[in-house]
Amino acid sequence: MMDLVERGGIVLILILALSVVGAVIIIERLLYFRRIRADEAGLLNRLKSAIGKGHYEEALAICEASPSPITNLTRVGIEHRDYPEAIIRSMVADAANLEVPKMERFLSTLGTVAHVAPLLGLLGTVTGNIRAFGVLGDFGAIGGNPAVLARGIAEALITTAAGIIVSIPAIIFYNHLVNKVNHLIIRLENRVSDLVLTLKRGE
After folding, report:
1. Distance between CA atoms of 129 and 124, rounded to whole angstroms?
2. CA distance 128 to 123
3. How far apart are the first and last CA of the chain?
4. pLDDT tens digit sequence for 27-43
């Protein structure tokens, strides 16, 4: 491993750093979405039951104990339950818009990793080839140092491969997470209407 890093040079180190950043973001986002989806159906049933019975303090306690986009919307709706339906819907919709940046957190950084990694690989290719051809230019094809020439070619090949290897999973998970966010946004929009109806029935 250290030999590869030595042959790949500073460009390969940057690509490896990007791979770590991308992996951390992917793991953090997957855990986040798993947490907010955990037992969502059961949570909603408990909230609807409490609201339907007029036990708003109990519903607020449930929201505080299980923070998620859905419970955050429910809390806003409960706090404004005495307002007209149109105002409740507007307030809950505004709260839903505030949840979107939380769901999209770090995704732009992951997208940047996916795009920058192959570019760094290309940069390594260019610098490696410059080094290799510099050896040929200085010493000639016959008299050149084969070790230096091989090092330049190795840097060109290693960084290109590393950039592609980092970029492919980053792109796959970026698209997966963006699709997940889009589905969550649609589901939140549907929950807004259900929440308002539940609150008005609970009056």
Report:
1. 8
2. 8
3. 66
4. 999 998 888 776 677 77
